[in-house]
Amino acid sequence: MSGVPGGVTLETVRAAAAALEGRIVRTPLVPAFRLSRQLGCELFLKCENFQVTGSFKDRGACNKLMSLTPEQARRGVIAMSAGNHAQGVAYHAQRLGIPATIVMPAFAPFTKVQRTRAYGARVVLIGETLDVSAEKAREIAEAEGLVFVHPYDDPAIIAGQGTAGLEILEDAADLDALVVPIGGGGLISGIAIAVKALQPSLEVIGVEAALFPSMLQALRGEPIEAGGATLADGIAVKTPGALTREIVRALVDDLRLVDETALETAVHRLAEEQKMVAEGAGAAGLAAVIAEPERYAGKKVGVVICGGNIDMRLLSGVLIRGLVRDGRLVRLRITIVDQPGQLARLSQVIGGTGANIIEVDHQRLFADVPAKRADIDVTLESRDAEHVEEIVAALDQAGFPARVLASRSADPRS
Question: Which end of the chain is more exposed for a tag (fewer CB within 10 A), N or C?
Fold first, then answer.
């Protein structure tokens, strides 16, 4: 492993593990039985969302801060982050008595901003991208003499993140594949260094959000074209690390992209099937397995759930949309004769199918229907997509023409 860029080796990662013992959570690698049956593989989840700050960033941040000289620690540190690195640096800086300033982009989720401040850090919100935030952070660092703690392109950070790889192999030494989300590349770089040294045959697969394929484009030598509103804001990085991209080039077997539907589906599946909360970036590895189950069929697969810091309002929306995709929440537009008793009859027909009415919107004035008819928009709880078809058929048979306004995805895997 001496040829790995940056000088990070298995020994470096092991030294980080010794330094971090008792200072971070030794997270579990848990079997995901229901997801395994659904996806046709033996799936294990590395729960980095169980860290104190809710993500793997605790590892690298703590390792970096403990490497500072007394003088550097006295002056303080500064970091730029969309949230998880911010919390990791802020928490461990507070614990170690090191002043911390965090520069966060304006789009950073409120929950991450709030928690970062709660750890005692000075938070500066500026910039529409991480790149702008990074530029401002370096300006403040130079002006105030602070140590810049990079979120991924730093040997101490990479070594700290790599300790997750050591733990994974301690818990499951016979994995066939390990799927890891990629933003700037620090996590997958550290993990790949550790696991490839110990188990060279283990396939390491990186996953990026399709809107931010920056690592893939960088490795291909293509212009980086990344941007957009992604659920996976934690890996929405336009500029991957110079050091991490070379480690990824040397040690990572493949890179895959996942779209927003796959990310939403993964967050929903983790909550429903595993009773586990993950943010979009945290669920990216599972999204890749859901998107290509045939690739992992029959294999023993580890997936790193790298973070769980999702805004509760966003999570609520994702879960509701998941119910819609599965056909368990549906909105029907039903045409009725506008006369007394029709709404009661309609309710009886729907109740007879076993569906539950959540909401009714009676359209008389603004719908494009004859004066003696009306449209009823009904939101229902249903069992599944097949049940929705049964409901529509029953309504049609009873003289209530109905059509689906919002329902399931056409993709059965979603």
Answer: N
Architecture of domain 327-406 in CATH?
A: 2-Layer Sandwich (3.30)
- Write out the H or E segment, with its range, that includes residue 77: strand 77-80
Low-confidence ranges of the chain (pLDDT < 70): 1-3, 130, 364-372, 406-414
Four-CA torsion 9, 13, 14, 15, nearest 10 degrees = 100
pLDDT recorded at residue 364 = 62
Q: Where in the chain is the domain with CATH 3.30.70.260?
A: 327-406
Is residue 308 within 8 A of residue 291, CB to CB? The reply is no
Report the pLDDT value the prediction gives residue 378, as an integer from 0 to 100: 92
Supply the pTM of this predicted model. 0.87
3-state DSSP assignment of residue 54: coil
Q: Any residues with CB less than 8 A from the CB of 35 and at least 6 apart, and which?
A: 43, 269, 273, 274, 286
Give CA 154 to chain center in angstroms: 23
Task: For the chain, report the end-to-end CA distance as a whole number of angstroms.
Answer: 40
What would be the CATH architecture of the domain defined by 1-325? 3-Layer(aba) Sandwich (3.40)
